[in-house]
Amino acid sequence: MRGRLSGAGADSATRGSATLRDVAALAGVSASTVSSVVRGRGNVREETRQRVRDAIDELGYRPNLAARRLRSGRSHVMGLALPSVTVPYFREFADSVLREAQHHGMSVRITQTHGDVRRERGVCDDPYLRHVDGILLVPVALGKEDMRALAVTKPLVVATASVTAGRVDSSDTDLFEAARTVVAHLVAGGRRRIAALAPGEALPAESDERYLGYVAGLRDAGLPVSRRRVVSTETVTFAAGAEAVRTLVERAPETDAVFALGDALALGALRGLRDAGRSVPGDIAVVGFGNVAQAGYCAPTLSTVEWCACVMWPPPSVCPSRPCPTSSMPPGR
């Protein structure tokens, strides 16, 4: 049964000097249970976890991170490197990672690469991420050779590829299969000249599972992969999507569907197509990736694929309490 502190000890605890034992007393659990909840470990029922969290919030308990680091040899801080937090998809991606990390008792440090291949390659050397336990990198510019050249000095997860000891291993195929499914959906709807708007320099990064899934989907349907219908963007923004689709319409006017590898690009494409006098979905169907909140508030509403960052983060190598990831691809709109 949940206890309640009283007297001088309670007054002291509520002023922010609460101890782990104070939390245990208020939640009506053992100190070891509180420790398990704080660390995100152990087989603790969700109801009990919530009681402990409520007690922590009520008392303003803050773990002694320095002592915790000395005991475990870990900082319990994760690094997240992504292109920009101003882009809706990446902003919501970061929010998902923050929530998942918090669930496991960790903090997150975020750095922006702005899609610069040198910053993506050197993410393990970023001074801001020097003392983190591991890093999640969301690349838009890395190719296969860049992946091989990564100087891996700590646990690193690159989108859906897990990198350890200098080797890149595939850990999840959700992005690939999701993109492949998008193309199959468009083909089933009678679309045959399907274009892609993708981040990258000259062409989309060969390591981008979404692009590879797009190519596989076309080949599954016996359709050619036309370079004219692949438009690369330097950034993943509304403006980049609008500009890319204008280029596409001029270069490949026969296009009847657009798969944008990011909802910001897709939303920009909707505006660009409207400016070009093309109707959606009458003349050209548009599908995005990420299921950002804005997708349901534009006209027409954006068809998009939902994908959740929590399937990959935090990785088991830096969070022993986290089991190996499982596939998760909720249906898009």
From TrEMBL:
<dbReference type="InterPro" id="IPR028082">
    <property type="entry name" value="Peripla_BP_I"/>
</dbReference>
<dbReference type="Pfam" id="PF13377">
    <property type="entry name" value="Peripla_BP_3"/>
</dbReference>
<protein>
    <submittedName>
        <fullName>LacI family transcriptional regulator</fullName>
    </submittedName>
</protein>
<dbReference type="InterPro" id="IPR000843">
    <property type="entry name" value="HTH_LacI"/>
</dbReference>
<dbReference type="InterPro" id="IPR010982">
    <property type="entry name" value="Lambda_DNA-bd_dom_sf"/>
</dbReference>
<feature type="domain" description="HTH lacI-type">
    <location>
        <begin position="18"/>
        <end position="72"/>
    </location>
</feature>
<dbReference type="GO" id="GO:0000976">
    <property type="term" value="F:transcription cis-regulatory region binding"/>
</dbReference>
<dbReference type="InterPro" id="IPR046335">
    <property type="entry name" value="LacI/GalR-like_sensor"/>
</dbReference>
<dbReference type="GO" id="GO:0003700">
    <property type="term" value="F:DNA-binding transcription factor activity"/>
</dbReference>
<keyword id="KW-0804">Transcription</keyword>
<dbReference type="Pfam" id="PF00356">
    <property type="entry name" value="LacI"/>
</dbReference>
<keyword id="KW-0805">Transcription regulation</keyword>
<keyword id="KW-0238">DNA-binding</keyword>
